TrEMBL record:
Family: In the C-terminal section; belongs to the protein kinase superfamily. Ser/Thr protein kinase family.
Binding residues for ATP: K392
Localization annotation: Membrane
Positions of transmembrane segments: 307-328
Membrane topology: Single-pass type I membrane protein
First-tier enzyme category under EC: transferase
UniProt GO BP: defense response to bacterium; defense response to oomycetes
Protein EC: 2.7.11.1
Name listed for the protein in its UniProt record: non-specific serine/threonine protein kinase
C-alpha cells in the first residue's frame, strides 16, 4: 500500500471526519488545477468537469458509469477542453500519455459485450451517428475504416467480432480509424516480479479494477499500451508496442475521451480514474481516492459468505438482498422476448434457459464456428440428451420478424434426409436463436480446405455428397408445398452427418434479410463466387440462381478448389472458367482434385464437372432444373450437347456486362466465401 493511501486509512480511523474531508478537498483542487494546462488527472470523478452523453453518468460515489447493464446502450465521456495534438513544421503528432483505471462487470464472463475505447477524435467527428454493440459507440458501418475520421483509439474489447477480425473475446487493440485493430493482444501483462517477465493474462470483464497506460512517442512514432492489476506498478514491458506515425491520423486539435457500448449482453462499464498529459508521462492517479466498483456475480456471493457468520443480523439482511440479486440476475440472464402473436407457434419455441443450460451458458468451448449470421454453439438438451447446434443470430429490426418466425416454423416442418433439420427457435431482445440437429462431421468446407488434420474426402464420398445435396435442393424447389429458394448454397453451408452424407443447412435464413429490407432497394443475398450473373441485373433469386450456385458447388467439390482461384501469376480466375478452359483443351480431368492422387471414377468425375459447368451456365435459360440434374447424375438421362468454347468466354463477358466485374475481380480469393448480405445483419450488401 502506498504511503498516501495508508495515511488516508489512518486519517479515517483516528481523526475527525471533517479533517479528512479537508484533505480530500485539497487533493481534488490540485487535480482540477492540472486540467488548465495540457494535462489533467481525475482520481474519481466526483465534481469532475467531463462532458457526458448517452448512458454515461457520474454516480454519487464518483464512479464514471458508462453503461448500466441495459442492452444496446452507448455512452461517451469526453474531456471538455480540446487539446493540441500536432505542432511544428511539417506538423507532426506530439507525444502524449494517458492512464486510466477501469472495471467491467458482467454476470456471465462468456457473454460480455462490448467494451471501452479510449479515443482521440476531432471536434467535428459525429459520435451521435455511431452505433452500439460491436461498434462500441465509436463508429458506424460507414465511418468504420474511413481515413477521414482522424480517429485513434485503444480498445478493451470483451467480445470476439469476426467482422473486425478480433483475435479473441478478451483483448486490447490499437485502432486507427477502424475497429479492425492495427495491433492487438490478449489482455494481460508481463510480470516484472521475479525477473521472469512472464506473461500473465487478465480478464477484462472480471469485475476487478485494472489499470491501462497508453503512451505515444512522437519522436520514435511508437504506440505502447500497458496494463496491470490495480495495485501493481506499471510493468516495464508494454503489452502492445507498435510502430505507427499518428501525424497523418490526428488533427491539430482534438478531443480525448471514452466510448463504450453494450449489445445483446448485460455488461456494465466503469472508469474509476483518468489522467492525461501532453509531452510527458500521465500524472499519477491516487489509487486511495478511487471510488469502489459495485459487485455482482459469483464473486459477490463468495464475499457475502465470508462476512455473514460474524455479523448475524446484518447477515440476515444481506442474504435476503443476495437472494433478490440472484433472482434479478436469473431473470436478466434468462429473459426473452415473447409477443402475443407468437403463442400460436408455441411448440417450436425453446426456452432460453434450456438453450443456456444446453450450451453451458454459451461457453466458448462449445463454439462450433462463427458464420456470417452469427455464432453456432454445440449443446445437449437437458431432458432428452439430444445433441443440438444453436445458432445465435443478432437482429436489430423488429420489421419482418413475424413473417420470419412464421417461416422458421414452416421450415421446421420441412424434413428431408439431405437437409439439416431445424428443430425450433428462441427469441431474445436483439437476438434470435435457431436450434438445429447437430452434425457430428461439421461443414464440408473444413474437409475440403481444412489442412492436414482432416482426411481428404475420397471420390465416392464426394459423389455421394453431390447427389445428396442435389436431392435436398430438388426437395426445396419442387417437392414441398411451395417453392423454396435456398439462396446461399456453398460448401460451408453443407454439413456432414454421422454417415458423411451431405445435408444442406441455412435454408430460408437468407429470407430474413429480405423481409426486413426496404422493398425499393434491391440487394443480392448470397456469396461472392456463387452468384448467378443475372442477379447483378434483377436481384431476383429464382430456382435457377440456386442451380447456378449448385453448379459452382459441384465444381468446388470435384476440383477441391474455391470458386475464385488464383492462377500462377497471382491473378484471379473463376473456377468455372478454368474448368471450361481445360475442357476446351481436352484435359477436363486435369482439374479433378490432385489430392485424390488419381484414385477416382473418371466417368463420374467428368460427368460431375460437365454438370457443374452446365448448371453454372451464364445464361439462365441454358441451365437444367434440379430434377434434370438428378437424372443426369444417376445416368438416367444423357447430358445435352454443350459448347465448351462458348461457355468459357461468355461467362466473363456476361458478368462484366452485368456489372459484376467490379467486385468479382477485386476480391481476393481468400474472401471468396465471404457472404454478401444486407446491412441489417452487418454482412456486406451488394446493391
Ligand atoms: N447443425 C450443425 N451441426 C454442427 N456444426 C454446425 C451446425 N451448423 C453450423 N455448424 C458449424 O458452425 C459453422 C458456422 O455455421 P454457419 O453460420 O452456417 O456459417 P456460414 O454462415 O458461414 O455458412 C459451420 O462452419 C459449422 O462448422
Ligand atoms: C440505465 O440507463 C438508462 C438510460 O441510459 C435508463 O433508462 C435505465 O433505467 C438505467 N437502468 C438502471 C438499472 O439503472
Ligand atoms: C468545464 O470545462 C470547460 C472547458 O474547459 C469550461 O468552459 C467550463 O467552464 C468548465 N466548467 C466547470 C463547471 O468548471
Ligand atoms: C454514419 O455516420 C455518418 C456521420 O458521421 C453518417 O453520415 C452516416 O450516414 C452513418 N452511417 C450509417 C449507416 O448510419
Ligand atoms: C489465464 O491463465 C490461466 C492460467 O494461466 C488459465 O487457466 C486461464 O484460462 C487463462 N484465461 C484466459 C482468459 O486466457
Amino acid at each position: 500500500m502506498s504511503s498516501s493511501s495508508s495515511m488516508l486509512q489512518n486519517c479515517k480511523r483516528l481523526l475527525s471526519i471533517s479533517l479528512c474531508v479537508i484533505i480530500i478537498a485539497v487533493g481534488v483542487k490540485v487535480d482540477a488545477s492540472g486540467a488548465a494546462a495540457d494535462q489533467f488527472v481525475y482520481s474519481g470523478f466526483a465534481g469532475a468537469n467531463v462532458t457526458l452523453d448517452g448512458a454515461a453518468v457520474v454516480t454519487p460515489s464518483g464512479l464514471l458509469e458508462l453503461t448500466n447493464g441495459t442492452l444496446r446502450q452507448k455512452a461517451h465521456a469526453i474531456h471538455p477542453a480540446p487539446l493540441r495534438f500536432r505542432n511544428g513544421t511539417p506538423e507532426t503528432a506530439r507525444s502524449f500519455s494517458a492512464s486510466f483505471v477501469f472495471g467491467i462487470l458482467c454476470p456471465d464472463t462468456d457473454a460480455c459485450g462490448h467494451g471501452i475505447v479510449l479515443f482521440v477524435a476531432p471536434g467535428s467527428y459525429d459520435l451521435s451517428a455511431a452505433f452500439p454493440s460491436q461498434y462500441i459507440g465509436l463508429v458506424n458501418g460507414t465511418t468504420n475504416g474511413d481515413a477521414g475520421d482522424h480517429l485513434f483509439g485503444v480498445e478493451l474489447d470483451t467480445d470476439q467480432n469476426n467482422e473486425f477480425r478480433d483475435i479473441d473475446g478478451n483483448h486490447v487493440g490499437v485502432d486507427v480509424n477502424s475497429l479492425e485493430s492495427v495491433s492487438s493482444a490478449t489482455a494481460g501483462y508481463y510480470d516484472d516480479r521475479g525477473g521472469g517477465g512472464a506473461f500473465r493474462n487478465l480478464t477484462l470483464a472480471s469485475g476487478e479494477a485494472m489499470r491501462v497506460w497508453v503512451d505515444y512517442d512522437g519522436e520514435e512514432k511508437r504506440i505502447d499500451v500497458t496494463m496491470a492489476p490495480l495495485r501493481m506498478a506499471k510493468p516495464s514491458k508494454p503489452l502492445i508496442s507498435t510502430a505507427y506515425d499518428l501525424s497523418s491520423v490526428l488533427t491539430d486539435v482534438a478531443r480525448v475521451g471514452f466510448s463504450s457500448a453494450t449489445g445483446s449482453f448485460n455488461s456494465r462499464h466503469y472508469v474509476l480514474g483518468w489522467s492525461f498529459a501532453m509531452d510527458g508521462p500521465a500524472p499519477a492517479i491516487d489509487i486511495s481516492k478511487l471510488p469502489k466498483l459495485p459487485r455482482f456475480g459469483p464473486k459477490h456471493r463468495a464475499r457475502l459468505a465470508e462476512i455473514v457468520p460474524p455479523v448475524a443480523t446484518a447477515g440476515l439482511i444481506l442474504s435476503v438482498g443476495a437472494i433478490v440479486v440472484l433472482l434479478v440476475r436469473r431473470r436478466l440472464r434468462y429473459s426473452e422476448v415473447q409477443e402475443d402473436w407468437e403463442v400460436e407457434f408455441g411448440p417450436h419455441r425453446f426456452s432460453y434457459k434450456d438453450l443456456f443450460n444446453a450450451t453451458e451458458g454459451f461457453k466458448n468451448k462449445n463454439l462450433l464456428g462463427v458464420g456470417g449470421f452469427g455464432r453456432v454453439y454445440k449443446g445437449v438438451l437437458p431432458g432428452s440428451k439430444m445433441e443440438i447446434a444453436v445458432k445465435k443470430v443478432s437482429h436489430d429490426s423488429k420489421q419482418g420478424m413475424k413473417e420470419f418466425i412464421a417461416e422458421v416454423v414452416s421450415i421446421g416442418r420441412l424434413q428431408h434426409r439431405n437437409l439439416v433439420q431445424l428443430l425450433g427457435y428462441c427469441r431474445r431482445k436483439g437476438e434470435l436463436l435457431l436450434v438445429y440437429e447437430y452434425m457430428s462431421n461439421g461443414s464440408l468446407d473444413k474437409h475440403l480446405y481444412g489442412g492436414s488434420d482432416k482426411p481428404i474426402l475420397d471420390w465416392d464420398q464426394r459423389f455421394k455428397i453431390i447427389k445428396g445435396i442435389a436431392a435436398g435442393l430438388l426437395y426445396l424447389h419442387e417437392e414441398w408445398e411451395k417453392v423454396i429458394i435456398h439462396r446461399d448454397i456453398k460448401a460451408s453451408n453443407v454439413l456432414l452427418d454421422n454417415d458423411v452424407d451431405g445435408r444442406l443447412g441455412d435454408f430460408g435464413l437468407a429470407r430474413l434479410y429480405d423481409h426486413g429490407a426496404n422493398p425499393h432497394t434491391t440487394h443480392v443475398v448470397g456469396t461472392i463466387g456463387y452468384l448467378a450473373p443475372e442477379l447483378g441485373r434483377t436481384s431476383k433469386a429464382t430456382p435457377l440462381t440456386d442451380v447456378f450456385a449448385f453448379g459452382i458447388f459441384v465444381l468446388e467439390v470435384t476440383c477441391g478448389q474455391r470458386p475464385i482461384k488464383q492462377n500462377s501469376n497471382g491473378d484471379q480466375l473463376l473456377l468455372m472458367d478454368w474448368v471450361a478452359d481445360h475442357w476446351h483443351k481436352g484435359s477436363l480431368t486435369d482439374t479433378v482434385d490432385a489430392r485424390l492422387h488419381g484414385s477416382y471414377n473418371v466417368g463420374e468425375a467428368s460427368l460431375a464437372l460437365k454438370i457443374g459447368l452446365l448448371c453454372s451456365h451464364p445464361l439462365s435459360g441454358a441451365r437444367p432444373s434440379m430434377r434434370q440434374v438428378i437424372k443426369y447424375l444417376n445416368g438416367d438421362m444423357p447430358l445435352p450437347e454443350l459448347n465448351p468454347t462458348l461457355q468459357s468466354f461468355e461467362s466473363l463477358a456476361l458478368m462484366q456486362n452485368e456489372g459484376f466485374d467490379s467486385y468479382i475481380m477485386s476480391y481476393p480469393s481468400s474472401m471468396a466465401t465471404m457472404t454478401t448480405m444486407s446491412n441489417l445483419s452487418g454482412k456486406v450488401t451488394t446493391t
